Amino acid sequence: MDPSKQETNQKKASKPMAKKETQEFQFVVYNTMTQQKEVFKPKIPGKVRMYVCGVTAYDFSHLGHARAAVSFDVLYRYLEHLGYEVTYVRNFTDVDDKIIRRANETGEDPISLSDRYCKEYNIDMSDLQCLSPTHEPRVSDHMEQIKDMITQIINKDFGYVVDGDVFFAVDKFPNYGKLSGQKLENNRAGERVAVDSRKRNPSDFALWKAAKPGEPSWDSPWGPGRPGWHIECSAMSAHYLSFKFDIHGGGLDLIFPHHENEIAQSCAACEESDVSYWMHNGHVTNNNEKMSKSLGNFFTIRQITERYHPLALRYFLINAHYRSPLNYSVVQLEGASDAVFYIYQTLKDCQDALLQLQEEMPNDGKPARISPDAKECISKLRNEFQVKMSDDLSTSLILTGAFLEALKLVNNLLTMLKKKQQKQQRLLVIKSLKEIENEVTKVLDVLGLQPPWSYNEVLLQLKEKALTRAGLVEDDVIRLINERAEVRRNKDFLKSDQMRAHLQAKGIALMDVGTETIWRPCVPVQQDSEIVPSEGQKVPPKPESA
């Protein structure tokens, strides 16, 4: 996206959301710890403290990272919508084996390399309309907190030092495995990597790693070295949120061993350590196999947003429940792109009509009188939004049903405005449009789908992406429209249909409006010519559409 648009997005995204009306439904979330839905009750009334594990920054982030970020961004937005004051912490891992390996390959300083990809990640987050967290701590900036926690763990006899390395003694923590259900006898090292014979138990994990040549290191009471992976989140969550906070989130793959080890470390350092709700988003799959960098079957966010609008990608990500697996599909991305185009086109048409009719709207401060259909539509949309969102963020069920009915009613009311009406009836339609538009944009705002640009701008951006996917520029489409107009004048409707179908197969829909033909993006449709008929069977041409 245009950097200036990213900056605008970031500024808009950083604005605090206004408090909404009193919550009418109890908000329930699925707690991985108890494996059931529970009513959400923060430890401090009116305030929520939330920590979400971020990325290990050594490359461009992929679709799995986008899903985690968007899932917890929706949670963040919804909590603020409910009126909570939210402290949201999402970390960057900038000290790690993968970063060091990549830096050695490229000849870069590991911290500098990671800093570059942290910045790239934030550009992706801005594009996806993810609000900036309250804090985005990095490992390299929190060495003192990490070393202090390791010291506490050693002093309480949960950790031990061997040749400058520090390990956590899992045998000392009887509740190890309570989050994942894993048993120690099922968690034995040595199956994929060599067992470190210095460990008391093969399942013990590193809190601190002794320095090796060519690796970044920091001084410590145990000698120069760097932290193990798991300790960073325990130390940083405690630093920003205390040992007791409300929500800890991350991807499903982090339940074990990362979050299991976090619990052990935090409880070892502070007996009163407690997280109320553990929340995890599902995997993104590619051909039903988990998408990951290690498997090499991933697409970066940047690769996808080169061809699809970031808001279409966000729609795709929230169009499945956050805990469900989400299979990467071009067809679904095309559908998401088509859906957001319809939403923004409807809202643009509504906004344009209301702007033209501004003088007809009285500004007397009285409550707007709207039609019974509009009143029922708004009530249904509001109720459905509250019911679905309060049920563990069921976003996939919100963008259908009452939401689509509201958009349909907007289009019906816009059609009515084109007809001759009495003044009072016309005023009723105008006010109804305004109220429905307000309710629809509230829903989009909480879902992070309200664009930071004008509707006209985002529609133009969506059209540009469609042209990119089609391998065309707009001049190509205009030329084909003009050629087709000539064909229609010659009454060669078969060829006219073939030209329309050719573009439709590329995701470009032509619409004949009176004597004019306009175009918009669409889901690519297979042409009849590509359908192979049975022997001796003919496929009849499609009739010319109106």
From TrEMBL:
Main location: mitochondrion
Enzyme Commission number, as recorded: 6.1.1.16
Any GO BP annotation: cysteinyl-tRNA aminoacylation
Domain tRNA synthetases class I catalytic: 41-336
Subcellular location: Mitochondrion; Plastid, Chloroplast
Cofactor: Zn(2+)
Gene Ontology cellular component list: chloroplast; mitochondrion
InterPro entries: Cys-tRNA-ligase (IPR015803), Cys-tRNA/MSH_ligase (IPR024909), Rossmann-like_a/b/a_fold (IPR014729), tRNA-synt_1_cat_dom (IPR032678), tRNAsynth_Ia_anticodon-bd (IPR009080)
Keyword tags: Aminoacyl-tRNA synthetase, ATP-binding, Chloroplast, Ligase, Metal-binding, Mitochondrion, Nucleotide-binding, Plastid, Protein biosynthesis, Transit peptide, Zinc
Enzyme class, UniProt record, top EC level: ligase
Top-level taxon of origin: Eukaryota
GO molecular-function terms, A-Z: ATP binding; cysteine-tRNA ligase activity; metal ion binding
SUPFAM superfamilies linked to this entry: Anticodon-binding domain of a subclass of class I aminoacyl-tRNA synthetases, Nucleotidylyl transferase
Coiled-coil residues: none
Family affiliation: Belongs to the class-I aminoacyl-tRNA synthetase family.
Matching HAMAP family: Cys_tRNA_synth (MF_00041)
Protein's name according to its UniProt entry: cysteine--tRNA ligase
